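Dear Dr. L.,

I hope this message finds you well. Following up on our conversation about the binding site, I have prepared a predicted three-dimensional model of the protein together with zinc ion. For your records, I am including the exact sequence and ligand specification that went into the calculation, followed by the structure tokens. Please feel free to forward this to your student if that is useful.
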Amino acid sequence: MIKTKGYANHSATAPLQPYSFERRDPRPDDVAIEIAYSGICHSDIHTARSEWGPTIYPCVPGHEIVGKVIAVGKKVKRFKVGDTVGVGCMVDSCGKCPNCKINEEQFCSDHTVFTYNSEELKDKTNTLGGYASHIVVKEKFVLKIKKGLPLERIAPLLCAGITTYSPLKRYGVKKGQKVGVVGLGGLGHMAVKLAKSMGAEVTVFSTSPSKKDDAKKLGAKNFIVTSDPANFEAVAGKFDLIIDTVSAKHDFTPYLNSLRIDGTHCLLGVAPEPNQVHAFALIFGRKRLTGSLIGGIKETQQMLDFCAKKKVFADIELIPASEINAAYERTIKGQVKYRFVIDAKTF
Ligand code: NAP
Ligand code: ZN
Ligand code: ZN
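The resulting structure of the complex is given below.
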């Protein structure tokens, strides 16, 4: 067993605190990783606080993981001790169903094992995530990271990067297209950088007027403050694609009205409460309202290679583990610039 130090909470209302536990010894197809950095995603907060339904405690969140291989099982072929690697939101799936076969393991029709708060396939224990010194993961779910990159800025790519890259690719974003990004947080700032790097003209929709200069620096051409409905008039019928990263309940109608004919509003944020949309907002202009969940392992590797080539990395605030609870509060207030990343040496 691998002695592991991490942070966990023990109920929906309890803060995260130091927590020691053991990882399994690597199985023949496992990779054991010493974690270097771990990003803080808003999904960690939703889960730690049981906002999406009851969470299993103790909960060790964290699914934006980079680190170094310290041991490999005897059947592992793609990794060796010393390699730099990443782990995202999933650590296993059935591997046999139609969705796994087309590299969409996040939609495994049997059971996707998520990196935390999820039942493992073999031993049926609850997964514990990346706010920890070590993790042991099946080779197939470990990503390669090129040498010489700023690792702390790569960690957020493992969730915020792939979650925004996948719909931008799926809906064919390219030069000349107009892309809107709603919410400038962890996912939002990656969406801006990635859409810009694919050639799109990017507009940020934000509740925070203070983020205007940052939005421009990140690559946005336009910035719309969403608190005044009049600000939407100038962009009616304009966008090919809107990427919606907002973590709280909000009205989709102004965004649907901002799409061109056949335009797509893609939901990434998951507010705890359901929403309502009037059919008129969709039928006039044949608008599409859709959603997207992270991305498969193959696509995650493509995204990492794309970001390495284009030098697209997250903008981060590096924190010690003792500041996780304060970081949660600032994230909830929309004050993160633009992803908190935990230095795993401090667990
Ligand atoms: P984040 O860093 O907290 O960013 C969310 C942003 O939404 C905030 O910075 C804020 O931007 C805006 N916002 C927050 N509250 C709002 C409100 N009440 N009304 C309007 N705007 C509001 O969160 P994140 O880590 O990017 O995650 C965003 C959401 O995506 C979360 O719900 C998370 O669980 C979900 N998620 C989904 C996937 C997936 O696969 N689909 C993957 C990862 C995360 P402004 O200040 O600019 O308004
Ligand atoms: Zn996430
Ligand atoms: Zn499957």
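In brief: The chain has two domains: 2-159+314-346, 161-291.

With kind regards,
A. P.
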